[in-house]
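Before the break, one more example. Copy the sequence into your notebook; we will annotate it together after we see the structure.
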Amino acid sequence: MALHTLHDLLLRELSLLSSAEKQSLPVLERLQKCAENPRLNRLLRAHAEETREQIARLDRAFVELEARPRNGATGCMRGLRQDCVEIASMPEVDGHVRDAALVAAIQHLEHDEIAAYGCARTWAKVLGLRHVASLLQKSLDEEHGMDGKLSKLAESLNKAAVEPELAA
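Here is what the structure looks like once it is written out:
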């Protein structure tokens, strides 16, 4: 995709976001199945639903822009998703430690999405695409919210993960 204008850059970022969200959905569902902590399980289930809504918003943005998303994903996002899958696939790891590792891996994904949504939202604003910017802001708010919930949950998960070490 040629990048000659800010509009081209916006379309590229939206395409990357669309691809990333679609590829993250099965990962979230897989992580939910292996999360030992019930709160983490519920949080992942809720975020999978938010992700479906974010995909729908991105689809609406493309309709408004009279464009189609291009397939693709950044190597960074691909690597972050793979990290999540690898952590989930470690049966020998204590459940509390795995849950703490999952939260960290998911937060890496969330932070990348926060950066991407923030850039795309800003570019949409600069281009005068208020409705597109509003759609992106809604998703950005959800990503920030998920990150905050993960941080709060991590406090208790990290304590549970360290307790067996303290008992030894």
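The mean pLDDT is 88. The chain has five helices and no strands. Try to locate both features in your own notes.
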